[in-house]
Amino acid sequence: MGRFGKLNLLGVGLASVSLGLQAEIQALDEATMSNVTGQAGISIEINNAAIGVGEIRYEDEGSIAIRGIEIGGANRNTFFGNQWIPNGLQSDKLDNMKLDLDVLADGSLVANMKPAGGFNVVDFRLATDDWYLMDSSLTDGTKLIDSLSIEGIALGARLRIDNQTSHATLQATFGVDDLDVDIEFLNVRVENMQIAGSSYLEAIGSFGPSGAGVGDIGAEIEIEIYSSGPGLAIDLNRFEMDVVMPEIYLGANPSIGGVYLDDVNVVAQTVIYGH
To answer: Where are the domains of the chain?
Structure first.
C-alpha cells in the first residue's frame, strides 16, 4: 500500500476513534466539575475598599445633582447597643467581605455576599453632601438635602440572575444603626434613626437596649428586576423592618419627639420608562 493510502487509513481510524469518543461525551454539572477541576465557582475577598464620587448628576431639561458621595466603613465597633467588631479592627474602609460567584447547572448566575474572617457582620457608611435641583444652565437652585449619613451593618446579601426567566432577584439583610438627614427645603432634620429587623422593638422592649441579637437587627428586603413591556420593572417583593426615629427637629427648635414603627412590611410593583 502506498504512502497516501496508509495516511488515508490512519485518518479514517482517527476519525472513527474521535466519533466514538464524542458519543460518550456528556455535559457535567457544577458539582461533578468541581470533583474534576477542584473548583466549584469563584470566591472574592474584599478588604480596604472605599468609594468616593464628587458628583452624580441626572439631566433632563433641568438637573438634579448629588455631591460628595462617600462609601466605606463606619469606623466604629458598636451597633445597636452591642460590640460587633473587635477593638482595633474598626476602620473607615469596607473590610472582611466575601463574594461567592457560581453558575448553576441550569445556567443561572448566583452571587452570595457574606462576612469573612470570622465576623458576623460587615460595617458600612454611606454619606453625601448637598442634593440640588438645577435649571437648564446648571445653576444651583433648591437645596433638597444638606447632608445625609447612614451607618450600619450588613449581615448578608445574595443575587440570582435566572437563566430561564431572565429575572434578577436580590435579597439582603442589613441594619441601620444611625441615619442622620437634613432636609433643608422643608426645614426638617432627623437624627439617630434606626432601621432593624421586625423583632427589634420586641427584643429591646423585653431585654433592654443591648438585648437585640443578630436575628433581631437585620431588616430583610427582596427586590426583583426584569424587562417589562414599557421599560424596566422593579418589584419590591418585601421589605420587613422596625423603624426608630427618636429625634425629629423642625427648624432650630428642640426635638418634637420620636416616632416608632413596628412590624413594617412594604411591597410594591413599579415600571420605569421615559416620557
So the answer is: 1-37, 41-272
pLDDT tens per residue across span 182-213:
999 999 999 999 999 999 999 999 999 999 99
Q: Give 268: exposed, middle or buried? Use CB within 10 Å, 0-12, 13-18, 19+.
A: exposed
Helix (H, G, I), strand (E, B) or coil at 28: coil
Number of CB atoms found within 10 A of residue 210's CB: 13
**Spatial separation of the C-alpha atoms in residues 39 and 173, rounded to whole Å:** 28
35 vs 41: CA distance, rounded Å: 12
Give CA–CA dist 179/199, Å, rounded: 19
* Single-letter residue type at 269: Q
- What element of type H or E holds 59? strand 51-59
- For 92-150, the pLDDT digits (tens) are 999 999 999 999 999 999 999 999 988 899 999 999 999 999 999 999 999 999 999 99
| Integer CA distances (angstroms), 244 to 140, 205, 217, in order | 33, 13, 12
